[in-house]
Amino acid sequence: MSKPVICIGAALVDELFHATDNMLLATTNDATVTKTAGGVSRNIAHQLALLEVPVQLISVFGNDSDSDWLKQVCLAAGVKLDASITKQGLSGKYTGILNVDGSLFSAFLTNAANHLITPEHLAQHQELLRTASYLLADANISVDTAEWLLVFSKETGIPFVIEPVSVPPAKKFINVNLDGLYMITPNEDELPVLCSDKSFLTQLQVEELLQKGVKNIWLHNGKHGSALYSKDKTITLHAPSIEVLDCTGAGDGSLSGFILGRHLGKEDIDCLKLAHTLSAEILQVSGAIATHLNQEKLLQQVCKYYPN
Predict the structure, then answer these.
(1) What is the pLDDT of residue 1?
(2) pTM for the whole thing?
(3) Domains recognised in the chain with CATH numbers
């Protein structure tokens, strides 16, 4: 049996309010609302499971009905929760306010309790962690936990990936020793806060992270595509032109597609094509998961967006 990808970080209930007209400040806006399972690491784990990649999720759940539902969604998708934590209190919740075009207007994060994923907790589950093909954490975890994972990755040779999530959690990592990190996946807003002020251009910021010992920087540029930087080469790929319904989870899906490519032994450019294809599919549905795709269907869809 294949080794699992182990995802570490947030599992949340997503409540998404979709504005039915242009947003107005300091007044009532009409909207429709959807409730879905969310959280960056949970989304990635869920999508990977649907793509037939074995996966474990280490996250924090409350002991309320929302968390019962959230766990059931994970287990039904094929996500194992062997080392996850159940705490007293409410489940973590992400409340997103979406503009009429599906883009994010604002969002709130409550009760996530990712601080409970401590180095001590992970140390208790080293036997499980040693079975991983990849370790993947979102930046909602504590710096101490990320540092423990990086040391563990270097000791075991298991590649470790950090997804910055957004600017506030990414800021925590500016002074962290990232030497040996397999990959970090910032967008254009997150990249600068990972670097010093002297690196004021994108290329300087990439070079700074490479000099710190990060092996790969995968820079997401939204509708313009992405670029994968390493010391030896840079690979760029344009994004497909699509009509966006809902931006939620597109970045998570992109990383899921890349990891699937690695799982299948594909080259960098083919991993990027899988990533962009999955992201494009998610952008055209409501919610953060492309539930209409399995591995075979996703591989077939690549030719739709990248016919050459």
Answers:
(1) 64
(2) 0.92
(3) 5-10+40-87+114-305 (3.40.1190.20)
